[in-house]
Structures are given as C-alpha cells and as structure tokens.
Amino acid sequence: MQHRNRTPMVLGLALALGALLPQVAEAGKGSSYQSIRNAIGSNNRDTILAEIERAEKLPCGPCFELVMPLVDHADPAVRDVAAWWISKRAIREQVRDDMFARLQGSDSVAARNAAEVLGRFMHPDALMPLELAIHDDGLSEEARAAAATAVGTIGDFRGKDVLEGAVTSESAAVRAAAAKSLREIRGNVDAVAVVDLLSDEEESVVREAVLTVGALREAAGLGALSDVVRDNTLSASVRRDAAWALGKLGDGAAREVLTTVSREDKSMLVRGAARAALQTLR
C-alpha cells in the first residue's frame, strides 16, 4: 500500500497555526495614536472597543485628546471603555474634578456620563458628589439612577448609607438602581433597607429588591418574599426570583408557601424554582 506524503499538509497546518500566534502574542500591544484615531473615525462600536482595549498600556499623551470625547459617546459600551482607559492615566485626577463639576450642572446627559466615569474610577472621594446628584431633582431620572449605579460600582462600604437613602427616592429608576447597587457594596451583609421595596408599585423595583434580599440572605424579607412569590399580577420571572430568594434564606418557615407554589403556580418556571428552593431549606 502506498502512503501519501503528508509533509505538505503538516507544513500547511503549521503555517496556519503560526499565523495565529503573533495575534495572540500581540494582544494588548501594537496600538498607536493613528490606529486609535482610525478606529474612532470608523464609528464602528466593536472596532473602537478593541482598539481602546489594545491601547491599555500605550504611553501616548496626545491620545487623551482622542479618547476623552468618547465618554460622551451615544453607545454606553464605548463610554465605558473610554472611562476605563482614562482611569489608568495620571490625568485621571483632573478628569475626576471635571466630572464633579458636571454632576453639579443642569445638563442631565453630561451628569449621567460623569457618573459613569466616576464609577469606573472606583474612588470613594466621588461618593459625596454622587449622593448629591442622586437627590438633585433638576437632573433626569436616568442621570440620578446612573449616580446610584456608580456608587455600587465603586463598592466602598461608605456607599451603603448613600444607597440606603436612595431607596426612598420618588423615582422608580433610582430606587431600582439603589437596590441593585447594594448587592455590590463590599462587606455589606444586610438588605434591611430594601425589604419595603418588595411591595413597591413598580415591578422593576420589586425585581431588584428580590434579588438583593436573596443575595444578602436578609431574614427580614421572608414575609414579603412569600407575598411576592404568590402574587400572580407579577411576571413569572419575578415570582421565580422570589422563590429562589426564599431558598437562599434557608428558613424552614417558607416551606409551606414554596410547596404550594411548586404545585399550583401557573408557570412551569416558577414551579421549578420553588421545587429547587425547597431542597435548600432547613
């Protein structure tokens, strides 16, 4: 039997693999002022994200003038990668002060973007300006919610008080953002402040409160979670999350309601979550 010469095939495979290696080795390298400028000029989201990430360690002072305007880009992912890139530069302190000034202004879009930048910087010196923005009725709900989200992104324990004050906001968007952000505060072990939100009139707020109570295993939420899981005016996804949260509490007092829900809820999604939660109870 004749054996086909496999050398050309092996060489071809090796060349193909070799062509890939430089791309891996150069990840995060090889960027330049011009490549950043070209990426931004393309106005292509993925191209911009990739190039800014590649320029993470690029020593390029003039590049700041290219990247800084991206914090006001229409795409939130582009705004985020720009803030991330700037956070790694020495000029971040000047930018921080500029963002503080934006939060005090009347332009809600600029304030929203400033809150996002400050969140990315992750420095607790931004907590007070963000707290003032959260309660600034002159700003849009979106901007105020972004400020609450930024407090969670920073994650400093001192932000817990800020967020617990925000859960009483008249804005549903702010209440939801604050409830969610409490899950991100380092060292936080309670969700007492959001228990009342489990009966909020806005489902988006209830959803975040349910997830926070469950994630932090807040025992005080047992009764209200039991009401949520049985409330058929709420979506199946919220009732499912409430069943999950009851399981996270691990309190045998939830067994009866979870048993009923596991048998009678109209949603298979909720029934399944209730059955799973039952397995975790004491």
- Fill in the CATH topology of the domain at 189-282: Leucine-rich Repeat Variant
CATH class of the domain at 189-282: Mainly Alpha
What would you call the structural class? mainly alpha
Q: Care to count the β-strands?
A: 0
Largest sheet composition: none
- Terminus-to-terminus distance: 70 Å
* CATH architecture annotation name of the domain at 189-282: Alpha Horseshoe
How would the global form be characterised? elongated
> What is the average per-residue confidence, as pLDDT, rounded to a whole number?
91
**Low-pLDDT sequence parts:** 1-28
Short overview:
The protein has 282 residues and is mostly helical. It has helices at 7-25, 33-42, 45-54, 63-67, 76-86, 92-103, 108-121, 127-134, 141-154, 159-166, 172-181, 203-215, 222-229, 236-249, 255-264, 268-278. The radius of gyration is 25 Å and the shape is elongated.
